[in-house]
């Protein structure tokens, strides 16, 4: 962890500190990978959400991804300018815009997802496949403790 800021030994062994450093490294790796396609992480997250949820209003998209509405307008405008999404009046409520991924957006998303996967492979390169699976399970339980409560008594694998 040469790029991590100094922290006293007592701090360096805390799960919260280690998770923060791992997250920072993961974000850096993914951001660098996405940048090779000219994509920023927030734009990738929004494009991924649009592709997964289908035509969706900007307001709903902001709630799904957890982005402030003003920031969402900017991100969707950027994605539309780059031809990755379309924004048309929502047929259910003409006052709203429905955002949908374009054919070019799907092509870019396939490439950026592969880049993100490679970055995550680099992040977890020191782990065996079984350890990676275990890490994902443990992190999921930390992020969503209520979801993992029923699995609390299971063995290390899940």
Summarize the biggest pleated sheet. 3 strands, antiparallel
Order of helices and strands: HHHEHHEEHHH
Gross morphology is elongated
Overall pLDDT = 89
Q: End-to-end span in angstroms?
A: 28 Å
Strand element count:
3
Question: Structural class, from secondary structure content?
Answer: mainly alpha
Give me the side-by-side strand order of the main sheet: 1-3-2
Task: Give the helix/strand layout.
Elements: H1 9-12, H2 15-35, H3 41-53, E1 56-57, H4 58-65, H5 69-81, E2 85-90, E3 93-101, H6 103-123, H7 129-143, H8 145-148
Summarize the structure.
With 158 residues, this protein is mainly alpha-helical. The chain contains eight helices and three strands; from the N terminus they run αααβααββααα. The longest helix is centred in the N-terminal third of the chain and has 21 residues.
Characterise this structure.
By secondary structure, this protein is mostly helical. Helix content is 63%, strand content 11%. Strands 1-3-2 form a 3-stranded antiparallel β-sheet. Helix 2 crosses helix 6 and helix 3 packs across helix 4. The chain is elongated, with a radius of gyration of 19 Å. The C terminus is likely disordered.
Features:
single chain; 158 residues; mainly alpha; three-stranded antiparallel β-sheet; 8 helices; 63% helix; disordered C terminus
